[in-house]
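User: quick one, sequence for these tokens?
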């Protein structure tokens, strides 16, 4: 499954952190994030990737998975857009490598971004993610950090 992002879709409004205080919004977000988390855990386990998953920040409805591979740290982040089903999903990823010459942090990094399609339900979201994870992880594993952070 190819994920593409148009310019208009590139900047969703994530200023709705107060949505966690709205019962219906928070319920939709919890359901969606649980679906993302289970799908991500399942794919990573099947692919032999030791991933650490974090999420449910107070300021943004997102899930982030982080792992080490090829001498780099890597992550994939799925952020929700919207307050009710159907919800939009933005998928981002990065790779970085830290060193400490002379005791100072020197970080090289690179990143990428996809737009994950809008999903009308948790079941549709799970199906779309299951189809997209192989491509997403292949691209993330191929990232090489080259730019100073």
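Assistant:
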């Amino acid at each position: 499954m190819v994920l593409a992002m148009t310019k208009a879709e590139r900047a969703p409004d994530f200023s709705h952190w107060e949505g966690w205080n709205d019962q219906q919004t928070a319920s939709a977000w919890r359901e969606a994030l649980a679906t993302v988390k289970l799908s991500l855990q399942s794919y990573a386990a099947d692919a032999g990737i030791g991933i650490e998953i974090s999420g449910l920040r107070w300021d943004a409805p997102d899930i982030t998975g982080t792992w080490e591979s090829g001498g780099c740290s890597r992550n994939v982040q799925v952020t929700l857009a919207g307050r009710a089903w159907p919800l939009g999903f933005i998928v981002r990823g990065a790779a970085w490598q830290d060193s400490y010459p002379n005791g100072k942090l020197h970080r090289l990094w690179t990143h990428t971004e996809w737009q994950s399609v809008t999903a009308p339900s948790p079941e549709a979201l799970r199906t779309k993610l299951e189809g997209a994870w192989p491509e997403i992880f292949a691209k993330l594993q191929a990232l090489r950090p080259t730019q100073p952070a």
